[in-house]
Amino acid sequence: MEMLSTKQKTVIIIAGVIVVGIFIYYMTTKANNYDYSAINEIAESETKEEENDKNEEKEEETPKEIIIHITGAVENEGIVRLKEGSRIIDAIEAAGGLTSEVNLKKVNLAYTVQDGQKIYIPKTSDIDAEIGIDAKTGEAVIVYNGTEEGTTGKININTATLNELLSLSGVGESTAEKIIEYRKENGRFKTIEEIKNVSGIGNLKYESIKDYICVQ
Q1: In this structure, how many other beta carbons lie within 10 angstroms of the beta carbon of residue 213?
Q2: Residue 208 φ/ψ, nearest 5 degrees
Q3: Per-residue pLDDT band at 30 (split at 50, 70, 90)
Q4: In angstroms, how far is CA 47 from the centroid of its own chain?
Q5: pLDDT in tens, 84-106
Q6: Are 115 and 128 in contact (CB under 8 A)?
């Protein structure tokens, strides 16, 4: 076999360099043209999932808001907004604090309030009253134990429970519930005659109960 001449060797080397150069160029061009969209989509999806997880954690950490109607011996009667899990003492503070007429003897300041409840903080004139939360209406009420000095012995239609209203002649459960619903929507009765605005209580029924009810 004849030995390659120097010229031939040079040609072969140059050809090899050209082939290698073409191969490198091809691979570089292919890499630059690679479609990274799938990778980008995965990365964006993971980022969104992380953001959603963070938002869910923030929502869980932030207590929900509840609305309470508080009346009685507080500076500012009306609606207050509290964090879920708040207690009666928190509702009092949100209403501007207590007045000088307050009687806290029967009030559980640590009671956890619920959304939609009406809380009545008793005054000194209610000193013989027992304070409780009506399970049906969610309303804090004053329950009198019979006739006491300084009271009329009549049913206070502004604070009466469902059972107390049912004790009135001619008042059934449906009418009693309408009375409670009326004062929730319109506030305390100003006069006993106002009870006639409640559906189901006409002049005849009013005449039969007017001597047994009062407003305070």
Answers
A1: 22
A2: -80, -15
A3: low
A4: 31
A5: 888 889 999 999 999 988 888 77
A6: no
